[in-house]
């Protein structure tokens, strides 16, 4: 399997511009590429596909990479088949997945990415790279026929993972509690990906990038912390 993925928790961290915190990894992923197909279906805040694509185009211009939005193509499936690389941005995961199925892009994306086409996701775009979208933080504002995602990796991801705030008086559920609920009904591991963190997947090797640890949840076991550089290849052998 020739996977070449960069799965980023968020597109913007505090005090940085769009994708600035991940610039080194983005350049490494897209080395030698001149054109990028952007899939803007997640529409953060309801932004239009064209406006979302313009934001991404501006960010990648400084790396001399031309960005085209898939929405501008008369044949989105053909656009995916001809793409040099694909980027799926953040927003609402349910809206994104519904549109991927509606435009018949799930199978073409799987075929191209698993044969080596570079794939980059942020937030919702990272969610859909996993086995299902069952660990998204988003509201289900539209109906989806299935939670099954692109399954580029055999585990789930929880982008924007947040730890409980010490001494907080908030009595609601923590993110860890919700993931534990998920594991009452689902077996696959879940990676809690904190802001500024990302996963680099090359073939059958996976690396945690960024300044922070990731919290990994396995069904029936206590959560574990892994630092950048730790061996987390077991995630690619998940059920």
From TrEMBL:
Q: Does the keyword Protease apply?
A: yes
Keywords assigned by UniProt?
A: Hydrolase, Protease, Serine protease
| Gene3D superfamilies documented for this protein | 3.40.50.880
State the name under which the record lists this protein: Dipeptidase PepE
Q: Which organism is it from?
A: Pontibacter saemangeumensis
Member of which family? Belongs to the peptidase S51 family.
Q: Does the keyword Protease apply?
A: yes
């Amino acid at each position: 399997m020739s996977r070449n993925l960069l799965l980023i928790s968020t597109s913007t961290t505090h005090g940085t511009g769009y994708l600035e915190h991940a610039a080194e990894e983005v350049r490494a992923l897209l080395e030698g590429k001149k054109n990028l197909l952007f899939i803007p279906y997640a529409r953060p805040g309801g932004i239009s596909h064209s406006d979302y694509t313009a934001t991404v185009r501006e960010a990648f211009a400084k790396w001399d990479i031309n960005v085209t939005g898939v929405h501008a193509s008369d044949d989105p499936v053909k656009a995916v088949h001809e793409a040099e690389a694909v980027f799926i941005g953040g927003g609402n995961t349910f809206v994104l997945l519904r549109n991927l199925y509606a435009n018949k892009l799930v199978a073409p994306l799987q075929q191209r990415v698993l044969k080596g086409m570079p794939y980059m996701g942020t937030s919702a775009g990272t969610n859909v790279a996993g086995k299902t979208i069952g660990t998204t933080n988003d509201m289900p504002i539209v109906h989806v026929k299935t939670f099954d995602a692109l399954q580029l990796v055999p585990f789930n991801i929880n982008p924007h993972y947040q730890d409980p705030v010490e001494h907080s008086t908030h009595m609601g559920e923590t993110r860890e509690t919700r993931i534990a609920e998920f594991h009452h009904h689902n077996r696959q591991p879940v990676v809690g990906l904190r802001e500024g963190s990302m996963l680099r997947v090359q073939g059958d090797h996976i690396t945690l990038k960024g300044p922070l640890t990731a919290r990994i949840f396995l069904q029936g076991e206590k959560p574990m912390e892994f630092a950048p550089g730790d061996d987390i290849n077991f995630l690619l052998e998940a059920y």
